[in-house]
Amino acid sequence: MRLVLGALLGLLFLVGLGPMLWLARAAVTPTQNTLREPLSLWSNPLDWANLYTAWARFDIDLHMFNTVVIAAGAWLVQIVVATTAGYALSVLRPRYRKAVTGIVLATLFVPSVVLLVPLYLTVLDPPLLGTSLVNSFWAVWLPAGANAFNVLLVQRFFDNLPREVFEAARMDGAGPFRLFWSVVLPMSKPILGVVSVFAVIASWKDFLWPMLVLPDPAVQPLSVRLPALRSFVELDVFLSALALSSVIPIALFLMFQRTFLRGGGLGGAVKG
Amino acid sequence: MSLTRTAEPATPPPGPPPAVPATPGPRRRSPRSWARGGGPACLVFLLPLFLVFGVFSWWPIVRAVVMSFQRTNLVSAPTFVGLDNFAYVLSDPLLGTAVTNTLYFAVLSLVFGYPIPLLAAVLMSEVRRARGLFSVLAYLPVVVPPVVSVLLWQFFYDGGSTGVFNTVLGWFGFGPVGWLQDPVMAMPSLVLVATWSAAGGTVIIYLAALTSVNPDLYDAAEMDGASIWRKVWHVTLPQLRGILLITFILQIIGTAQVFLEPFLLTGGGPANSTTTVLLLIYDYAFATSLGGDYGAATALSLMLAVFLAVLSAVYFRLTRSWSSS
């Protein structure tokens, strides 16, 4: 058994970490060496200038900034929608809560592909605004908020909070807004952590939707810009750009492993 | 889909009877307590939900159904054309290719991505020390942005004899493989990247389910002298049945909408061998900059959605009849 586990660990190192280690090395290797000896363990000389070229000359800094802003906005919209809705449906409990929960949950069964074209047309000509949202971050932020999974997660969490605390707060004269801000939100840090991780990761990964609604390179996130770069950037600089694009998600993962892994397991548990 | 409360407070709160707190029911409330309980405030709190879901989810869903019966371009008002869009899509010779390719992708994904994570999770659940290290390594590819993995693997897949994978094959005396250029190899190559980026998530889901299996069952099996493989077969797998069904359906639903890998790696080629349904939808709607055939695109999206819904309904029914018999 020890032997099998040792082999598994070795395999996981090779398959899980190997490609990223390769990328890290290739990011600082001149193109010629990468092409001639793709699997040599070390290159001489190292070419650190690749990283700088990618960062400054090919605007990786700008696109990474866009990625961060898009992720932050999508996160905020999702948190606001999920917590207010979860609070209203689970703590305030209006009579129509079943109906609202039902039409929110129904959207879980509609695959996102159905929304692609009508959502695109909605963003081209949104109601009430009178101006197209194309090339605006709102076109990515707002649709991200329509996430039934988040609402379900938060609602379930709020359902399990002890109701005596709410009653006590009401006795002390807290209105619904005070109750939300000072009692419910501080108690829900664990679930907010999970929703945040889901939100940031999903936004960082998204490709098709931002590609459709952000055609202007100046506002594009990394995921949309990188495929365009490959046709006109030298290979070593391109690989540096890929490496730079992975640094933040991997760093976040290593810092918040527990939340990531718990969230990953939860994804299956809740959908069940 | 009822959301029943799983944990009740130890002492029932004063007021409404605690027996059915999750259902609104015929509960009598005075207007004053309705207001204090948050009646009008409730609407304020639901406003973000209604706005965001209304504009970006409910309305587009309705619109998708309407548009599939219309001819829409961005210049003139849409006109109803009955079932023309559906007839057009169904008579498109590429549709059969796209459906076959998508099914092929789904089957290959199941072959690669279903047993391997399960095996890895079962083995990892036996790990006593440093299980965290195993989990982190398995999950790492999931946090790499998919576009980065796809572009990186595109370099690995270089068809020349000095490509990364071909160099490795060369060590064992196999000739260079045209990973993405060869119509036979192209689809398996796409599935390989997709599996690499997704398998870690499945491992973690299984691992979470495995650690919730009652350890008494294992002790009983050990008492009866069961080997590890018999324990896996008779204790672990039956306990995991629910989660295995869920990951199966999630994987089908995910693979039916595969887009990123064929779009970036092959563009549907070579010779349409990797054109998937979603790629076809994208081509209908967005391939030309003049405003595409939105009617055909939504018609095909709807057919795909209905197919997915029917598939999961049939599958649920099947497994329910198994477990009850």
Quick description:
Chain A has 272 residues and is mostly helical. In chain A, 75% of the residues lie in helices and 0% in strands. Chain B has 325 residues and is mainly α.
List the helices and strands and how they pair.
The complex is a heterodimer of chains A (272) and B (325).
Chain A: H1 2-27, H2 31-36, H3 49-57, H4 60-92, H5 97-106, H6 112-124, H7 138-145, H8 148-159, H9 163-171, H10 176-187, H11 189-205, H12 208-213, H13 222-229, H14 235-255, H15 257-271
Helix pairs in contact in A: 1-14, 3-14, 4-7, 4-8, 4-10, 4-11, 5-8, 9-10, 11-15, 13-14
Chain B: H1 31-36, H2 39-67, E1 70-71, E2 79-80, H3 84-91, H4 93-113, H5 115-124, H6 131-143, H7 146-156, H8 164-171, H9 183-211, H10 215-223, H11 228-256, H12 260-266, H13 277-286, H14 294-324
Antiparallel strand pairs in B: 1-2
Helices and strands of chain B, in order, run as HHEEHHHHHHHHHHHH
Shape of chain B: globular
Q: What's the Cα radius of gyration of chain A?
A: 23 Å
Top-tier CATH class of chain A:
Mainly Alpha
* Beta-strand percent range of chain A: under 5%
Largest interface: A-B, 113 and 108 residues
CATH class of the largest domain in chain B: Mainly Alpha
Structural domain tally of chain A = 1
Instruction: Report the CATH topology name of chain A.
Output: MetI-like fold
Count of individual beta strands of chain B: 2
CA-CA gap between termini of chain B = 24 Å
**Count, helices of chain A:** 15
Helix content percent band of chain A: over 70%
Total discrete domains of chain B: 2
Might you state the CATH topology name of the largest domain in chain B?
MetI-like fold
* Structural class based on helices, strands and sheet pairing of chain A: mainly alpha
Head-to-tail CA distance between termini of chain A: 32 Å
Overall mean confidence score, pLDDT of chain B: 79
Report the CATH superfamily of chain A.
Answer: MetI-like
